[in-house]
Amino acid sequence: APDIPVADVQQDLKELQSLAEANGGNRAHGQPGYKASIDFIKGKLDKAGFETKVQEFDEAGGTGYNLIADWPGGSADETVMAGSHLDSVESGPGINDNGSGSAGILEVALAVADAKLEPKKHLRFAWWGAEELGLVGSQHYVDSLGDETKKISTYLNFDMIGSPNAGHFVYDDDAAVQGVFKDYFKEKGIETETSSEVNGRSDHASFAAAGVTVGGTFTGAGDTMTEEQATKWEGKAGEAYDKCYHSECDDISNINEKALDLHTDGIAHAVWQLSS
Ligand code: PHE
Ligand code: CA
Ligand code: ZN
Ligand code: ZN
Ligand code: ZN
């Protein structure tokens, strides 16, 4: 898999920050900053040759949007998906939560296009709406698929991959998918853990409940880093992984660039490996 330039991911985050600033300070469901974020990501994917579609749904008196992007080719009966929620909470611009995952999978998708990748399996990327209202967009998508969910071999989820006081967590849902990520981090000399913060709390849960194999990585939310973790991850013990979690200060300065780089390259590793 290619090395994704972290500067490109940061550039996307700057754009998401600008879109929040131009739209009342957030990118939340039902707010103009959310739709502007969808349009920005869709524009880049369309230009790169993806087949995109926007799925609309109604929630809490507002229109929600999921963005689905298919890379043409591969066996559609074996689809590998990577997804991230694109909505923020109303209190801030949502750059770590979840501009980070959204920009990470975007740059991996663009790298797939750059490489003119011809994977054996079909590749699909997705940006979910209204995750912060209870995994609403991803649940709507899974419901809309019905029997077609059987064609998804793996769903990979990325929600918060640039936490300032970063942990390195791998979802423990499926042993084989977990192994793909653990191999990657091992090559990089990084120890990983599973996280009790993850369980059922992001969009992979919509897929897991429908029987789809899921996995993902995470750098931590509002929980506190232990002494032991601080030693192995060169972090700050007794501080939250993300002290700006769901706050106004979750802005462009709330990103650990090393973690963002490491986890984005990990997404590329898994996408290349699982789709081949
Ligand atoms: N889904 C949570 C949020 O968006 C955070 C989270 C990310 C939880 C990843 C678990 C795993 O606020
Ligand atoms: Ca990189
Ligand atoms: Zn959140
Ligand atoms: Zn989130
Ligand atoms: Zn590798």
TrEMBL record:
Pfam families linked to this entry: Peptidase_M28
Assigned EC number: 3.4.-.-
Domain spans labelled Peptidase M28: 66-270
InterPro entries per record: M28_fam (IPR045175), M28_SGAP-like (IPR041756), Peptidase_M28 (IPR007484), TAT_signal (IPR006311)
Keyword annotations: Hydrolase, Metal-binding, Protease, Signal, Zinc
Superkingdom in the source lineage: Bacteria
Family: Belongs to the peptidase M28 family. M28A subfamily.
Name of the featured protein: M28 family metallopeptidase
Originating species: Streptomyces ovatisporus
